[in-house]
User: Fold this.
Amino acid sequence: MHYSTYFLIITTVFVLLFATSSSSFINSPSVYAKYTLSYNDAQSTNIYINIEFEINEDIQLHLNGTQTFIMPRSVPSGYALEFYDSYVDNLTAKSSVGSLITVKKDSTSGPRWTLECASNETLSTISYSINLTKHEQGILSGYDASKIRQNRYIGILGYSIFGYLEPMDQVENLPLILIVQSLPEWSIHLTLPPTTNRIPGQQTYGTVSGIAKNYYHLADTQVFMGPSMNVTYIPISYDELYQQKTKSQLSFDQTLIEQNYIQRSLSFYVVVYTEDTDNLDVDMATNLSVQAMKNLLLYYNNVPFPLYTVAMEMTKPLDDKHSYGISMEHLNSCTINIEYGSGINKNSTKDQIRIFQYNLAHHIQHAWLPKRLFSKFYYPFIFELTPVIDTIWFNEGFGQYIAMDAMARALPLNESYEYRQYFIKNRFEYKVNLAPLFIKQMPLPYLSMIASSLFSIDVRTTINLNSRGALMAKDMDELIQLKTQKQKSLRDGIIYMLNWSESNSYIIPFTMEQFPKFFMNATNVDVTPILEKWLQ
Assistant:
């Protein structure tokens, strides 16, 4: 999409959504609900969520009569179940006239509550609390849990605390406001675009607000707050990054209703909370994050978000039952969970540093693939159960290969070759052979479906799936370069696919019938034989 079109859309959105003050957002015809997250007592480990609904004639969701409230159990790219509903306390609902509505938890063990509104009653608010200490203790996968360290830090994963009314999760255009209220002296970082034309990088305290395009965007956001986190703002200038390109050659996402002012740079943030400052050099980690993002922006030639956050956490393990070290990708951010005692510092080796940065690049990369380029069952997302996806080999395997390719392209030729060989040999080829024979013999689509709910539980499936997908991408890349005398590569096919996805507002899944056709259109090379070989 051209820069001028982007400017027109952003200006229109600004006029429609942000002409009013923040206190009147809920009355805007463009907003369906206002979520408020409150933490106002430093001696408490409870957070409070209040959801205020507004009748919206433009959105066909009714608030009168019986309603169903749902908490997620499955999260985008999580490929596992987490019973977040178990940590919801004191759930209440009120009508528009202030009367209490009867609330009943689902009797069949689902993550649902029935709100027994009468036909002549209109649901107005839903309120509940979550004890973050209890929440973190009960979720053994430390990277799936929100966290609190009293008087120091809170890190929130949106999907772990924000519920929704059925069928909010299936509505594409459903603007939602999120307001975060904390202690006056606590800084707050929100990964959603702000609701006001705030100066990028400006530190916010006490209260902050953002806007989400829909529930999926809200669920995939993060909130960080507290005096012990480090927040660094680095604007990445498009003019400097794309020196050889005119603005009309760059691709900007026309669907970002949340962007409220035109930018000539990406607002890039690095948020770090560590309980081991000796083993995590914040400045070094920040610089590595910036370079990884720049390399990926150059690779994709596409800017699908107005701001992006890399958030790093290194916390002491609660006990030996809790696991850490797995990172997660989101639409406008990634959460890098670092095992306590690891990380990087001035004493780290070259290999330790590039593995650390590769992990950053891998998870930043996911903001494009699969967040904005995916096959069936990834989106619209099913939040109550883990969807069975037969293309995780693409989401993860191709994603890992692309991260390597983007980082290698930024290096001098001899270093680029060595970098590629390091990861091909030590990550993809080595790890593909670690699985037992019965996993190696599974067709990739079948293994992907199995891993859809076991990804972080039985890592034998994960490692084999990722490695086979990456090696498929490698074979396709080498074939395309060979057939085109290095005039084209896998990158051309991926960019073609991403442009197709952008033309469909990033909401339409591609099919496996389309997959080889995309590459043929982009490179004039038939990758079908390689695809069929690896899918077996």
